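Following up on my earlier message about iron/sulfur cluster. Here are the inputs again, as you asked, copied directly from the submission form:
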Amino acid sequence: MNDNYHIFSDGRIERHNDTVRLVGLDDEKSYLPIENAEALFLHGQIDFNTRVMSFLDDHGVAMHVFGWKDYYAGSVMPERGQTSGRTVVEQVRAYDTPERRRALARKFIRGSIHNMRANVSYYDGRGHEFGDVIEQLDTQQERLEPELDVSELMGVEATARRAYYSVLDDVLPDGFVFGGRQYNPPDNEVNSLISFANSLVYANVVSAIRATALDPAVSFLHEPGDRRYSLALDIADMFKPVLADRVIFRVVNRSQVTLEEFETDLNGCLLTESGRKTVSKAFEETLNETVEHPRLNRKVSYQYLLRIEAYKLKKHLLTGEEYVPFERWW
Amino acid sequence: MSDTDPVELLLESARDETRDDEFHVTGVMMQYYAVCKRELWFESRNIEIDRENAAVVRGTQVDESAYEDERRNLSIDGTIAIDVLEDGRVMEVKPSSSLVEPAKLQLLYYLWYLQRVVGVERDGVLAHPRERRREPVELTEENAEWVEGAIRGIHRVINRESPPPAEEKPFCESCAYHDFCWSC
Ligand code: SF4
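Thanks, got it. Here's what our run produced:
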């Protein structure tokens, strides 16, 4: 279970008896083992019809569509029978109670800053001096007072993220120049990598949320409706340093992705198909890596950590028990 | 909320389904009450959670088939489902040694319900398929008090705003809410 399948070629997916098959432009057919699938990631130009869509729906398989501009284009989510009026009611109640909303928004940022700090600490001392950045992150962490409203909290998060990203130019190998975060579309190689990896995190969080009957559109830190699945943005932010950024550092430092792997034109700078393949593969490997969970007393995959985060949030909403954000503990 | 004794409330609810403070107790709720009150609270609110390897299911299912041909399954009031043996005794299967109390309480509740609501007196038998042994169970006065205490306790638990806090128990390992309780 929980496998993601990435499809890079162009063609068509169709239902064939009790399977889903991919038919390439050259008419070559391959089959997708969807019994184990969590989601299909469509990176190429893929046609599909309602028949295959309802088949995927029956099997609870999501489709995440990756387009060109900023990569993520949208998701087709299975109904999954995971709807719970009660959960959504509690979610909206928490959103609508300023104190509770602020408290959750603060927790998400606390988790994000903690995880950014963990990455910076890793590089601090390994040939780099990042003491000042760590200090800046700690300062922002301390600014997270209960009185701050959501837009002020957003400001703290933005300041922290800027400090965090300032280490990138030092950490990445020669030739990779970051110079600040640019979106829609990304304007250089590093931004392009970040956008792509972040959208992979985001899509996986969308899948994780879906498994818990939480409404992905009701969020706490981001404004509901900022994007369709704004709750996924709330949760994804905490995982970007641990999932996306680690993958980026890895593929670039091992020269698995070089500057050749990008295409720059008026539409910005985008990863080529082979670059996307490399990053997706490294990303899936990371999702499947496991860590010992101190409370569950077993090893869990990074992908399951996303699911756990959704459980924790749901538990908080339904029981009032404290939500403790994901903070890397290893 | 009314101040009616939950036991009275349950008896009245059994007679009159249209009350707005209706209170029903199923056999499973009795079992959860004895096993884990937090689980009872979750169940009462239909909080569904599946854990990753959902293969672990409480012992019950394993032994379900053990006495298949000698019992008849009866549903009473749509609330309780009992297994009646040919000799008229009510049977409950004890799945494992750690769950003997919950199974016994559940059986006693059935006997109590039959007596108080339906008006028939029955004896019970707790079956131990693995040990091929059957233990007679009777609704003594003391046992009836145990049941009524549990009814009041269940009423208290499911009316709580939040669930009782998680406590590590031997059952947690095989509980469907395991990751929900312990991912923290
Ligand atoms: S995991 Fe343990 S504490 Fe939680 S509901 Fe199950 S038995 Fe109760």
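One observation from looking it over: Chain A is about 50% helix and 15% strand. Hope that helps, and feel free to reply on this thread.
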